[in-house]
Amino acid sequence: MGGAVSPAVVATGPVGPDEPAPDLETEIPPSDSAASRDGMASQTAAIGGASVPARVAGDIERLRRLLGGEQLAWLVDRARRRMAQRQPLTGVVTLPKASHEQRRAAERLLGRRAGRGYSLSVPLDEVDRILRASGAAPEGLAAAVVLLTGPVVDEAAVPATGSAVWVAARAPLDTFTSRRPELSPFLAWLDGTGALRRLAGDPDTAAGLVARLVAVLDALPSGGVALDGLAAAATGDAHALDDGRPLATLALAAVRVLAGSEPAGDASAAGRRAAWAAVGVHLDELTSTVLCLGLPGGTTDATGRVLAAAHEAGEPCVLTLRQVIGRGGERAALGVGAGLVFVCQQPIVLASAADELGPGTPPLVCVGEHPSAAVLGLLELLAAQGASFAYHGDFDWAALRLAGGLRDRVGWRPWRYDAEAYAAALALATATGGETTTGTGGEATPEAGSGTTVGAGTATGTMARAVAGTVARAAAGIATATGGPLTGRPVDASWDPALRPALERHGIRVDEELVLRTLLADLAAGVPGPAAAVPGGAAPAG
């Protein structure tokens, strides 16, 4: 056989978990290589004893549910590596120091407990049997790997020098991630999708791409930098991280992992902005904003004067990132000092506080569903000036993940945001039938189960309803009792170990709207906890 041997490919299929697979059956393209003529004459690729037909079929959606999540990426990666090295997909693979989420994912796949201890062992033969029996991958584990991650290159068919140069090209990234173990899911994604080879095309290009990627990741998380500034500082090219560039694709996947989500993640503009913001990088200074109320401000700078005027009027204030970070090193005068700042997740809490308490509202910041760079910048600036924080959010997995990320950055104490508060909210939903407690415009709406009312007849009513869709939903009185069943991947609550088991036990999401009256009472008293509760759920004094 003369000439270089082309890499043998098991089968074609979707490259990544969020790329479409139209018919879920794809033929291996014919090859003129000797390997194709001699080793694949029967149109079947046999790798390590695992026979993978030339047409790979399966139920991709079911397969992704069984095996495609990030918590089992290590298992798919181990199987893929065995296939590439012509090793059989039999025996047991073990993951040292498995996380709780990884263990739970393995138990869901196997339908039984996955043992005890720190390590996690999974029998490949059992996984193969489960995939065949379920119909998710009738041809077994090898076919499932192809469906989930795309073609598998037979490393035995690649000249040793070719394989070595690819390993050398990626070596700096492997070394870097050994010091940053939180990036392990990113490496698993890189291995599973073949993204580096696909984006680079050849080892020399890959080496340059890896060097720039390591430089970018080494600068993260940042204390606050523009995306083009990060690109220029790390690579010498201010446009290196522009959407669509190979480096941007790889860096964004890694950033999502650092932000606590999956490498593929939310591909929308808002999702990209949120991922970068989570590591202290902003796409621009004007579209990133933060909603706040009750910050006293000051007279020494423009932002301080804006806050002071809004505080005097009892109106919410929207600050841009530009206003938060200041010009020429000048930091905004926020006027809080070493005081307490209340932090909520949903705009309705802040809007209702403006209506009910007006200028009497203590400092309150709304972080939203995806905290922006402006949100993070304001919280960090408040912390740097001596403030402490009390946090409340929705009771669901995404909200707990968000809260944990904020706690890692600035620290906070729970504001009715623990297992006890969750149980109380569920009891309230049962007692009231879940009716909301805010009314429209200048009306007063009876709270279910009590004879008290909440007046909303202030001049800020119109603005409050415009703050966000959640405000309009609550004002229309159509919010549900709890928000519905829990969905998503469970996560621990570092501030209260009992909170996760409580959510798992009940399986019910609780939105902030449900406990709005209690939160308003706390704000009126300036105390983030039960001591501020008003007996019988009475409205706070205006």
A few lines on this structure:
With 542 residues, the chain is α/β, with parallel strands linked by helices.
Question: What descriptive keywords fit this protein?
Answer:
11% strand, 23 helices, 6-stranded mixed β-sheet, 542 residues, 3 domains, disordered N terminus, two-stranded antiparallel sheet, disordered C terminus, alpha/beta
Structure report:
- The relative contact order is 0.07.
- The chain has 542 residues and is α/β, with parallel strands linked by helices.
- The chain is flat and about 75 Å long.
- Strand 15 and strand 16 form a beta hairpin.
- The protein contains 23 helices and 18 strands.
- The protein folds into 3 domains: 8-157, no CATH class; 160-282, no CATH class; 289-524.
- The longest helix has 20 residues, at 160-179.
- Residues 1-55, 434-481 and 531-542 have low confidence and may be disordered.
- The strands form 7 sheets. It has a 6-stranded mixed β-sheet, sandwiched between helices. Strands 1-6 form a two-stranded antiparallel ribbon.
- Helix 3 (73-84) packs across helix 6 (141-149).
The main sheet comes to:
6 strands, mixed
Q: What's the Cα radius of gyration?
A: 27 Å
- On the 0 to 100 scale, the average pLDDT is 77
Read across the widest sheet, the strand sequence of neighbours is 10-9-12-11-13-14
Apparent shape: flat
Number of strands: 18
Number of separate domains: 3
Structural class: alpha/beta
N- and C-termini, Cα separation: 89 Å
Enumerate how many helices there are, as a single number.
Answer: 23
What portion of residues is helical?
Answer: 40-55%
